[in-house]
Amino acid sequence: MKETDEAIYLRYVATENISDLETLLSRHRDGLLLFLFSFVRSAEDAEELLMDTFARLAVDKPAFDSRHPGSFKSWLYAIGRNNALMHIRHRKMETVSFEEGIPSEADIPDVELLRKERNRKLYQAMAAIKPEYRRALTLLYLEEWSHEEIAEAMGLKLKQVYNLMDRGKKSLRKTLEGMGIYDAQC
User: Fold this and answer.
1) 3-class DSSP state for residue 160?
2) Residue 54: CB partners within 8 Å, gap ≥ 6?
3) Which of 2, 5, 129, 159 meets the CB 3.0–4.6 Å disulfide criterion with 133?
4) What integer best gives the mean pLDDT of the chain?
C-alpha cells in the first residue's frame, strides 16, 4: 500500500528528511506546475513558484491538519495559489487574455497531456475561456479533484465552485463549438 502524502509530510516535519520532500515533489510536480501556469502564463514563473511552494514546506513547515484525510493535495495547491497571487501582486502582472494570443509551444510547461496532438484544440479552447474557469476545469478534469478539494484550493465556497463549473463548462462548450467541435462532452 502506497504511503499517503499526509504521512510523508508529517514525517518530514518531524524528521526533516529531505527525501520525503523529494517524494512529494515528484508526486505533485506536473499537476501543481500546470495549476500555477494557469495563473502566471509563464513556464519559468510557474517553475519558480513551484520551487517557492516546496521551499515554504521545507523551511516554514506550515501546519497541516491531519484530521482531514485526503486533503493534502488541495492544501498544497492552496499554498501554491497563494504564492502565485502574491507573485502577481508583486509584479503587478495580469494573466494573458485571449486577444493576446495562445502561448507558443515553448511557453507551455513540459506536461505530457498538453503535448499530445489530440488535446491541442481542447487546450486552445481552455486558453480562450476566463482564467478562473480554466483553473477550476483543470482541477476537475485533469487532476480529477472533487468539488470540495477545488473549493479549498481556490479559496471559494462549495456553491461558488458549482456555479463556476457550470459557467466554465458552458463557456468551454461555446468556445469548442466556435472551433467546429459540436460533440464535446463538457
Assistant:
1) helix
2) 21, 24, 25
3) 129
4) 81
- The C-alpha atoms of residue 186 and residue 178 are separated, in whole angstroms, by 14
Angle at the Cα of 97 (from 126 to 34), degrees rounded to 5? 45
Return the residue matching grid coordinates 463556476. Answer: 164
* Cβ neighbours for 181, distance < 8 A, ≥ 6 positions apart: 121, 125
Provide the 10 A C-beta neighbour count for residue 74.
21
Distance, in Å, from the CA atom of 101 to the CA atom of 97, rounded to the nearest integer, reads: 7
pTM: 0.61
Structure-block grid coordinates of residue 70: 485526503
User: How far is 91 from 93, CA to CA, in rounded Å?
Assistant: 5
Q: Which residue has the cell 523551511?
A: 59
* pLDDT tens column, 120-142: 677 778 888 898 998 888 888 87
Q: Grid coordinates 484530521 are at which residue?
A: 67
Q: What structural domains and CATH numbers belong to the chain?
A: 5-178 (1.20.140.160)
Q: How far apart are CA 42 and CA 104, in angstroms?
A: 10
